[in-house]
Every structure is written in C-alpha cells, then in structure tokens.
Design a protein that fits this description.
Blueprint: H1 11-14, E1 24-25, E2 31-32, H2 34-45, H3 47-51, H4 57-76, H5 84-93, H6 98-122, H7 128-138, H8 149-157, H9 162-169, H10 173-198
Helix pairs in contact: 2-4, 4-6, 5-6, 6-7, 6-10, 7-8
Domain Glycolipid transfer protein: 32-170
Protein name: Glycolipid transfer protein domain-containing protein
GO molecular function: ceramide 1-phosphate binding; ceramide 1-phosphate transfer activity
Length: 205
Amino acid sequence: MAQAFPPGGTFFDNAKRSFANVPVNNSKDNAISTTEFLEASESLTKLFDVLGSVAFRPVANDMTGNIKKIRDRQLQAPMDSESLQELVRNELKTKKHTATEGLVWLTRGLDFTSQALRQNLTNPNDELSTSFRNAYGNTLKQYHGMLIKPIFSAAMSATPYRKDFYAKLGDDQTRVHKELGDWLTALEERVGILKEFLGRKENKY
C-alpha cells in the first residue's frame, strides 16, 4: 500500500479538507456548509484505506454512497442547499427524503468513526479492534439488521494492530496524536450539531 502521508508529514497533510475547515454559522442555527462538509467527509473515507482491510470496504462504500445522495440533491437545487440544514428542510418540503436519509446515515457513520478513534486515542493500551467494536455497539449496531451486522463485525475484527495504524498516519507520533485529536474535536462538534438537528421532530421523514 502507498504511504498515506508525505515525507516528514502526516496523513492529515494529504486530506483535501479537515472538519476544522468546515464553516459553521452560529448565527443561523449552526448551519454547516454543505460543500466543505462533503469534502471533509470524503477525506475521512480515505482513513479506511489506512486501516488496510478489505473488510472495511463496505463501511467506506456506505459513506461514499450517502455522500453522493447529498451531493446529488445539492447539484439539483444548489440555492436551497448551501447548508446541510437548508438542504434537509427544502428537500422535505418536496415530500422526498433521499438526501436527508443519506445525511442521517452519513452522520451515524461519522459518529461511529469518531467514537472509535477518540476511544483509541484516549486509551493508549486499547487495540483498534476493541475501540471499533465498542463504538459500533454504541452507534450503528442498533440500526443494522441481521445481514449487515456480520459484515461490520468482520471489519471490527480485521483492524490492524494499533502501532501499525498510527505508524501509517505519520512518523512523528507526537504530531500524529495532536493532529488526530484536533481533527476529531472538529468532527465531533459537527456530528453533535447534526444529531441534534436531525433528531428534531420536524426533520423526521
């Protein structure tokens, strides 16, 4: 597999966009900019390449499919989709919910990923398999049926050793841990905003 970071850098140097660079308009109900959010989400899916197992392909494909649903709606109605919140409200007015459903599932996938990595970063003795399994139980598992759960369980068991994963993120481990922590904080903030927004009664479909 190709190295995930440039010489002397980290994985995050290659990311097209960090969640820290996804605008949030606090004066407009924490409106999250659609274009930048989708770019950051696409960058996150590259992390599953670093995890290195084909077992994670369904996880990455699921996220990519949901990103496409949201972007398709944005391209269809750009003036109504500048923020994710506007996109949802305006799509639901049309009695359709393809992109809204995509955002719900993308948010769940991002929540799963952020919880797994945060737990692993906070608990230096935990292997990735433990962190990902715990995060799956806290997030996606409740929404998955009998056919999907084994696929995700296989992915949890196929995670690389902790030391190998972090080595693929960069040579300077102090910098890797700091940048991963900053990236996660921004991701967690935006996931929290979306979970609250999508949980509102008027945004159910």
